[in-house]
Amino acid sequence: MRSLLGRLGGKRVLVVGDLYLDHYIFGRPNGISREAPIMVLDEQRREDQLGGGAAPALALRQLGYDVMVAGVIGDDSEGERVIELLTSAGIDASLVLVDPTRPTTTKVRLVAEGFLLFPQQIVRVDRQERAPVPANVERAVGQAIRTVHVEAVLASDYRSGVLTRGVVDAIRELQGLQ
């Protein structure tokens, strides 16, 4: 296994797709709410992670690949955080485009700790636009993809509107699959 992993490093991979911010709020249960039959958590910590297509990009980077990402984020603090997490992981985010007409997909999870053996996710709140990106954004993503030289492309479709026909066509042209 070590021999195989040693040969993986250095190859340039483009990950194209839906980019998410996964935001976790961890807390310890302290009772049941008076307003509804739900658990009340005392917040202990918060954690942000890359989600959607950004998660396989991170996994490839951790395996030693030279990774770049193409996708769309919103013009918001969550999008800035996605760029920050990609950059700090050593992932090239220069092909990530900002679309001010849609929010960055964000999934917030509340997780209870300390009452069971393992942490328990108790609710998830999604902020997500599923419609295809506008035509001008689709063209811009396609044009960006056509400028790179990579050895492989991973398309990551979470049905959030980035992998449109035009973007897939750009990937096929890049890889000579037409």
What's a quick, concise take on this entry?
With about 180 residues, this protein is an alpha/beta fold.
Explain how this protein is built.
Helix 4 packs parallel to helix 5. The protein has helices spanning 2-8, 54-62, 77-88, 135-145, 165-175, and strands at residues 12-17, 19-32, 39-52, 66-74, 92-99, 105-112, 120-127, 152-156. With 178 residues, it is an alpha/beta fold. 31% of the residues are buried. The chain is built from 5 helices and 8 strands, in the order αβββαβαβββαβα. Helix content is 28%, strand content 40%. It is globular and about 60 Å long. The strands form 2 sheets. A 4-stranded parallel β-sheet has the order 5-4-1-8, sandwiched between helices. Strands 3-2-6-7 form a 4-stranded mixed β-sheet.
Strand order of the largest sheet: 5-4-1-8
Largest sheet: 4 strands, parallel
> How far do the termini sit from each other?
35 Å
* SSE string: HEEEHEHEEEHEH
Query: Which residues form runs of ≥5 with pLDDT under 50?
Result: none
Decide which structural class fits the backbone: alpha/beta
| Principal-axes shape call | globular
Strand content: 35-45%
Features of the shown structure:
178 residues; alpha/beta; 4-stranded mixed beta sheet; 8 strands; globular
Helix and strand topology:
Layout: H1 2-8, E1 12-17, E2 19-32, E3 39-52, H2 54-62, E4 66-74, H3 77-88, E5 92-99, E6 105-112, E7 120-127, H4 135-145, E8 152-156, H5 165-175
Parallel strand pairs: 1-4, 1-8, 2-6, 4-5
Antiparallel strand pairs: 2-3, 6-7
